[in-house]
Design a protein that fits this description.
Layout: H1 13-39, H2 48-57, H3 59-85
Helix pairs in contact: 1-3, 2-3
């Protein structure tokens, strides 16, 4: 039995889906948290890296970085599946 992590540096379809959808979900969560913080009069606290990204470009930049990473992983997984099919 081989696990997902035995793939010698290549991303499999399962890994691409798992990490890609996970990063996209984290991006949605970051976007929602930042939207709630903006609408609150009390403010809030987030991780310093997310705060730095928010300071640079707003909530779209902070969440967009996670979305971009998710799309990259999805693309790598799909590419590996298509390459294995040939």
């Amino acid at each position: 039995m081989s696990s997902d992590d035995d793939s010698e540096g290549e991303v499999t379809l399962a890994q691409g889906l798992k990490y890609g959808l996970g990063l996209i979900a984290i991006g949605v969560g970051v976007f929602l948290v930042l939207t709630m913080i903006e609408g609150s009069s009390r403010g809030g606290r987030v991780h310093w890296l997310i705060a730095l990204l928010y300071y640079i470009g707003g909530k779209w930049t902070a969440a967009g970085l996670f979305w971009l990473g998710g799309v990259v992983f999805l693309g790598l997984g799909i590419r590996a599946q298509l390459r294995d099919r040939e």
